[in-house]
Every structure is written in structure tokens, then in C-alpha cells.
Amino acid sequence: xxxxxxxxxxxxxxxxxxxxxxxxxxxxxxxxxxxxxxxxxxxxxxxxxxxxxxxxxxxxxxxxxxxxxxxxxxxxxxxxxxxxxxxxxxxxxxxxxxxxxxxxxxxxxxxxxxxxxxxxxxxxxxxxxxxxxxxxxxxxxxxxxxxxxxxxxxxxxxxxxxxxxxxxxxxxxxxxxxxxxxxxxxxxxxxxxxxxxxxxxxxxxxxxx
Length: 209
Prior knowledge:
By secondary structure, this protein is α/β, with parallel strands linked by helices. It is built from 7 helices and 4 strands; from the N terminus they run H-H-E-H-E-H-E-H-E-H-H. The protein has a 4-stranded parallel sheet, sandwiched between helices. The two termini are 15 Å apart.
């Protein structure tokens, strides 16, 4: 799940090099991948977008190439707010949740329904494994949310793997072309594969647009 909200004239995230790259990386390891493209025109449309996301995930799960009982959801940037639903009530097929430079508390001045507060969702969740990538030079609101999320998850017993990118900025995986970025992306990929129980050598698979 990509970030939100996006500018009205933003290209379809399915065409972004970032997500095409992650998709290719996972597909090369034998994992079927799909980017859920959704629209958030303003904060009042978050519930409708969340419903669209859930419906699209179900469409992916019924694809004949997909094992519907082995799914990891991966949230990037502003898409992190949508993780709250899945933290609060994880279905049995959800093997884990990955979060990359995620927004976990709303930006100052945002009026957001309590449904979209991942830190609060931890207290009533089902403790699915988490993988969180933190960019050390991220924007302050993102870092503040992560700083609130990590101790809460630890205190409440959530299995969590933290991947640190000390010198990384927000969107380091597309902006910072260096070994630290590469190491972090591959570490996140490996963590997701571990959650899925994917084999080390498998035939590539991918979903059409």
C-alpha cells in the first residue's frame, strides 16, 4: 500500500519505479506481489479508501496463483495509517505486517478518525509479526510516530523486527542510492519472505495490472 494523500495530478503509483522495483524484487523470490492503488482526495475519504484496500486484497487472495492463507501486507509512508485496521483485527491468513518509513500518527492539524491510529490499535490487536524500517533522517512527524509505536508494540508483546537506516531520508529507497539503502531494502525483503515461509528458490510470479 502506497502513501496518501497524493496530489490530484500524481501518476498512478503502480507506475512508480519504487513499487515496480519492490514488486520485481519479491517476484524474483517466487512471491506473488500486487500494489493496491487507491485514492484519498481528503481525510474524510480515508474510510472509503480503507474499504477499497480491503476489497482489493480479497481480489488478490482469490487469484489462482496466490496462496490465500499466506499473505503479508506492506505499508509505505502515509499508507501506514491504514495498517490500524489490520493491527486491530488481523485475519487468520495474515502472516505479518511490514511498515516502511510509515506515518503512524497523523500530521499536526490532521483530523483523523480513531480508526486510523495504529499506535492505539496495538492495544486491542492480535500480535501478528511486524517488520518496521526506520529512516534515521526522516521527517519529524514520521519519526515521532515510530518513536511512539515501537515501545508500545514491545510493551504489549508484538513480535517486531526493526530495520534501521541511520542516514536514510524519507523515501531513501528511491532517493539515496548507496549501500545502506540497498542493505535495508534487501533486509526488509528477507524479513517478508521469512514471514511468508517462502522457499529460497522458487519460480517468479507476479500479478498483471
